[in-house]
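Researcher: Please translate sequence to structure tokens.
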Amino acid sequence: MAIVAVGTVAIDSIETPSASVHQVLGGSATYFSYAASFFTRVHLVAVVGEDFPAEHIEEFRQRGIDLTGLEIRRGGKTFYWRGRYHADMNNRDTLEVHLNVLADFNPVLPADYRRQPYLFLGNSSPQLQLRVLEQMERPQLVLADTMNLWIETQRDALLELLPRLDGLLLNDSEARLLAEEENLVRAGLKIRTLGPKFVIIKKGEHGSFLFSRDGVFVLPGYPTPNVVDPTGAGDSFAGGILGYLASDTSPPPGRLRRAIAYGTVIASITVEGFSLDRLKKATREEIERRLDEYRRMITF
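Model: Translation complete:
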């Protein structure tokens, strides 16, 4: 079954301790869509400027990602981000950001998108996420991402959104901020009481926590020795999760747990290259092999 992915398509410039790239494809919807497309059809909703390179449009099309919902703003410039990672590759500094066409993005879903069963709301204002959700007819599963900025500045809108979600994805510092709890287990349990059916807390290279009606589930990160660029890992993780859920009709709780394992594996592939470089070389067969390795690592 198909997924509607709403988020950013961006141009990034990235510096790491060992290398750097300039003006490469990035954005939450980019990474999410590419990761999810290993499993199912994706309908992308985003906005770019007239300066957006045609070769990136072709990359999406070759991947089978539907671009009916991609707005190309005449005379506009694409969202741009430049950042530098610290030596540990877990922390980064934003050196430059230009919202450009993203500043007044107000997505209007094509009629066919509104009937799709799965929806991903990439990290953006909860007010915008609510406007998108209200355009959907009867989605079976809605997964949303958020960040510290929205928790701090639009908390009321976020609290209005949470009961309408099936799943919420956020990192450990965001979970502590939203729940006002330092202990991550208490934070995850408390966030579930705010509305979402399940909560996934990301801990970067250390894995993730899942909080659902079936209890607490913990998965470590996949041990990747060659981390080139962590950008997009979280959105690839989300794409793997929702992509797998859209392709598997088996009953929970195993289905959701397997989805998180797939997301973990795909994120571990993403970080092995800049931008989509490593994902473009990956195959479903490679993902399955790495999943088998991962399963053996965590079974005792």
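Researcher: Any highlights?
Model: The radius of gyration is 18 Å.
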